[in-house]
Amino acid sequence: MKGIIFNLLEEVIVSHYDEDTWERLLLATGLDGAYTSLGSYPDRDLDGLVSSAALTLGLTPFEVLRWFGQQAIPRLYSRYPGFFASQPSTRSFLLSVNSIIHPEVRKVYPGAQVPTFEFSDDPGGGLLMGYRSPRRLCALAQGFTEGAATHYGETVQFEHRECMHKGDERCLCHILFSSDRSH
Amino acid sequence: MFPPDEEKLIEEVRKLKKRLARERAARLEAESIAEHGLRQLYEKKEQLQLLGAVAVAANESATVDELLQLTLNKICATSRWQLGHAYLVRQKGNEFHLISSGIWSEINCGWMEEFQLATRVIEKPVMGGLPDRTLTMGEPIWVADTTEDTGYPESEMRRLEGTKSAFAIPVRAGDQVAAVLEFVSEQFIALDEFFLQLMAQIATQIGRLLDRKRAESQLIHDASHDSLTKLPNRALFMDRLTRALARNKRIPHVSFAVLFIDLDRFKMVNDTLGHNAGDELLIQVVARISAALRHEEMIARCGADEEGNRETLARLGGDEFTVLLDEIRDPSQALRVADRIQKTLADSFRLGGNDVSVCASIGIAISGTAYDTPSEIIRDADLAMYRAKSLGGSRYVIYDESMQALGASRLQMETDLRSALKNDEFVLHYQPIVELKTSEIVGFEALVRWRSRPDSELIYPDQFIKIAEDSGLIVPIGAWVLRQACSVMCTLQQEFPRERPLTINVNLSSRQFSQLDLVHQIGRVVSETCILPGTLGLEITESVTMDDTDRTAAVVAELASAGVHVSIDDFGTGFSSLSYLHRFPIHVLKIDRSFTGRIDFDAESLAIVRTIANLARDLGMDVVAEGVETKAQAARLKSLDCKFGQGYFYSPPLDETSVRRLLHSQEMPMPHPRAR
Fold it and tell me: Would the CB atoms of B187 and A86 count as touching at under 8 Å?
């Protein structure tokens, strides 16, 4: 997992709680917490921090990741405004993850293991997003999506139709955008 | 208040927090710088790979289109330029303009179609627009902000709507801009010198391929076109004809015609004014015929498809041209074209300082007959052309099957001529040349005849020399004539010894004259036949001397030093280049019979003969008037100081026996020439 995720998590925790909370999470997971966006770190570090946060904050890990995703978007925007500016809507922003954002990540970090989402239009309306990754971070994906919607002044309904956490082979998320509904 | 220690501690914590914030900010800054650096490193690596890939593709035999597509794809994939497009430069007259190559590349831009449309809809790029300006300036142009006033025309601004930056670079092939690559982006992209250099190197690579492809296509073009007239050559014509024939087999009602064109007086122009003038004439003739065909095409087209000419004018070689008239409605169209071609050649041509008239004999073959190969069609058109020529030239003739026999008879004659050589069927006749003042025979001109069977009539040269020349048989025939004439003269000189020995003149064709070992051959004949030195004369036409004047001068000089005289035959009928005459040690000018025949009633002919006689005297040459047929002519010639004459007034050409008889009689007191 890229260091940027750990940096963002720290920023989100510290700004919503305080530094001590982050320190306690590190203490509980036995991590030293020295993360830089330039580095890559074990996935289990993130799992540990999320589990600890869930315990500490009285939430499920799913809720922690979703909330973190939502909160991370404004911070990502302040670091990489170009990715947002070039896309006019939540939907196109999501689609640009495969085509622009992740390719860009790979340019800077050649070994970065970024997921590829399988996008397709749902005949019944909305967007279907397939996701396969041993990290099983579909909650984070939902949080990012919702955060992006907030950025674009939209709302989304996010539904996990299939989920690796429920024993499915992949996650299949159905995303209905407020722009879809207004039509 | 906190105790002092505690206060100090709080102060310490505050400072530490500030330091921590500073450290964090520094870390973020460092990360950002590092990411930027990594991103740049990546781009540079990509760009170098791009250059490498383009270089490899350019060096391998990729097509230009493939290379352009690959280049645009790679540039758009590795830079922030989202859309790339290649224009090709087209030349129309002296003007160069751009057309879309139809080769595009785009990365993540929604307005691709819009931009394509705006770029294509106007057929060619906006005059004064970015690509056009790049072509004109021959330099890359980088517009970092297309939204501010860039000084481009409004239509160009509309085309660039939606972009924020644009960039175009010329691709040179040789010293000309051959293509322009244009890139646009909806991001602002500041001028990047490194990128610019990279693009320049890429443009160079593409230019190299364009250069090579041009050279290749030039080679292909050269192999299928005549270098002088730029017309398709025989190979290409045969190819087109093959296709027309195949189509005609499939769709018999769509017919075609082949016109075989041969210029009537071309050889004389070539021979008397030189090859440069001949070449120039061909170019002018082709220009006129092409224009006539274009005119015909305009009439015939009437809303037909715009692609491809239905007329192919080709040069088969020399002064032979062919026209393929494809998809004609009826044969009358072919006649109309033939007529138009002849009319277009009617006005004289200006060559250097000379006005030259040529006309064309045209043979026409129509696809209607059952043809299986293109050669058959060309053969028939050729036969029809020969018929046109034999009818006096300057006309057109449609092939019909009776001409097959004519063609066959030509072939037969060639075969017969070969066996005539082998079987010794040629004979020589000798026409006396007399000194006008004394009527004394000074020599003879040897003239060839052909007796195919002992009992048959003599065949005269006008019936076989043309075929002998065409087939190259003239060389061995001429060699036989030379040897035979020399050996006969040798015996005559022994039988009729004179103070001024008898001379013998032999005609030499241009093909014989152009043999490299000519002087050697003649030298051998002279020594082997023991003809007296200084008594052999060779008659060549003006045309032969003008072929290659340097060589002529050298050969004539060599012959002269070997004691062989050279006469110019038929003098006055060609395009005399008098300026050359003094360069050759010519002994005799032979005035053409056409002037002699008119000398006593036509002032112009008289003036010409007088001029030739004066010219000869000034240049130290002798003059022989040919075709002297009357006493009046002989008298007039004498009065003009013309020294020698030959013609029926004195004697027709005689066989060897008659020559002896005549010479014997001359040893008696001079007989008076028979009156006419």
Answer: yes
Q: B460: helix, coil or strand?
A: coil
Strand bridging mode A171-177 / B165-173: unpaired
The packing angle between helices B656-667 and B474-495, to 10°, is: 30
Report the amino acid identity of residue B379: R
Domain total in chain A: 2
Distance CA B212, CA B28 (A): 52
Compute the nearest-CA separation of A50 from chain B (Å). Answer: 22
Residues 6+ apart with CB under 8 A from B161: B118
List of chain A residues whose C-beta atoms are within 8 Å of the C-beta of residue B32 = 79
Q: pLDDT digits over B11-37, tens only?
A: 999 999 899 889 989 998 999 899 889
Q: Please state, in angstroms and rounded to a whole number, the distance separating the CA atoms of residues B196 and B182.
A: 13
Contacts of A107 in chain B (CB under 8 A): 38-39, 42-43
User: Looking at the structure, do residues A34 and A113 belong to the same domain, yes or no?
Assistant: no
The pLDDT tens digits for B592-621 are 888 898 888 888 888 888 888 888 888 888
How far is A97 from chain B, CA to nearest CA, in Å? 12
Cα B311 to Cα B315: distance, rounded to the nearest angstrom? 13
User: In this complex, which of A36, A37, A107 lies closest to B39 when CB atoms are compared?
Assistant: A107
Helix extents (H) in B345-436: 374-390, 402-422
- Domains, in order of start, for chain B: 59-224 (3.30.450.40), 234-400 (3.30.70.270), 476-667 (3.20.20.450)
Considering CB atoms only, which of B27, B38, B187 is closest to A108?
B38
Question: Is B186 in contact with A96 (Cβ distance < 8 A)?
Answer: no
Other residues' Cβ atoms within 10 Å of the Cβ of residue B282: 23
Residue B650 corresponds to which amino acid?
Y
Whole-Å CA distances, B574 to B171, B268, B281, B619: 54, 7, 16, 19
> Considering CB atoms only, which of B31, B186, B187 is closest to A38?
B31
Q: Are residues A29 and A85 in the same domain?
A: no
Rounded Cα–Cα distance for residues A91 and B334 (Å): 69
Chain B positions touching A38 (Cβ under 8 A) are 31, 34-35
Residue of A nearest to B109 (CA): A86
Distance CA B142, CA B166 (A): 6
**CA A22 – CA A14 distance, rounded (Å):** 6
List the pLDDT tens digit at each of the 183 positions of chain A: 999 999 999 999 999 999 899 999 999 999 988 999 889 999 999 999 999 999 988 999 999 999 999 999 999 999 899 899 888 899 999 998 988 889 888 888 888 888 889 999 988 889 999 999 999 999 999 999 999 999 999 999 999 999 999 999 999 999 999 877 654
Q: Which amino acid is at B113?
A: E
Domain extent for A111: 69-182
User: Mapping DSSP to helix (H, G, I), strand (E, B) and coil, where does residue B153 land?
Assistant: coil
State ipTM.
Answer: 0.83
